[in-house]
Specification:
The protein contains 16 helices and ten strands. It has helices at about 1-15, 15-20, 30-45, 60-65, 80-85, 95-100, 160-170, 175-185, 195-205, 215-220, 230, 260-270, 275-285, 300, 315, 320-330, and strands at about 20-25, 50-55, 75, 90, 115-125, 150, 210-215, 235, 250-255, 290. Strands 1, 2, 3, 4, 5, 6, 7, 8, 9 and 10 form a ten-stranded mixed beta sheet that branches.
Amino acid sequence: MRKKALVLLTALISTPVFAADVVNIYSFRQPFLIKPILDDFTKQTGIKTNVVFAKKGLIERVKREGKHSKADLVLTSNFSALIQLEDLNLTQKIQSDVVSANVPSTFRDSDGQWVALTKRVRNVYSSKERVGALPELTYEDLADPKYKGKLCTRSGKHPYNLGLVASMIAHHGEAEAKQWLEGVKANLARKPQGNDRAQVKAVKEGLCDIALGNSYYFGKMMQDEQQKSWAEAVHINFPNQTNRGSHINVSGVVMTKYAKNPENALKLIEYMTDNKAQNMYASVNMEYPVKNGVELSEMVASWGEFKEDSLSLDEISKYRPAALKLIDEVKFDL
């Protein structure tokens, strides 16, 4: 009898049932955004989620843990982190007809190593008081001498700006992009510093007239009583509407190379790319869904329709190393 009980216990411990009920996640994305989505996923599927949140260090942690890492998925807040995980050989292929149907190929890795979950535009904010709306502004215009001493931005090496510079190289070539970047640097009102919201605050305070920033920050400032006046002082402009469209950055997800629960991880990816989660992303964080046809939040919709740059992130990613080199060469942050 005792022997039978021992056999039964061993079978229960070794059975995949326990593991099959869980997805372990390392997340750069904040708890307030992720938790409602994960809670609903668990409600719908019965699969529990364990999440480690951190603003920094998660990629290094996955690399350091190697085969022993508990992470099945890594949620990133930008495109650069997706590419970094892929380049470090820390990912595995995501194969799903559901994901392929939900996410346009422009926002998926051609080899399936990452999938975008939300979109955000690299906008240009302009002072309502001193500049007005700039519906025909292009990223190229940011190097125009007429804006000398009027532009604010965060570090050129931040992933958001790195992606924009990479897209400029993709469209114009390295030599022309370098010339543009030198012009942008010459137009800076101050040394690159702070985050995207700090740039809008600087416009309100008159330190500069125009600033680069991601679209969803505009919505988040409008929801923050202390920052609402910053957002109300600027227009949100979608660059390059007269030609190729605005540059898009993304948040996204990878399945880790040594995921212990790949089937459940895939179910979560499929859920996060489908209507309900996409709508939650849009309404909670003021981002644009990657799935076509999902309704925008009322606030985001009020900013108006715009044209996106159709160049794939897969293509733009090829120019990230060159972009980083240019930023160093022109001493953008110095």
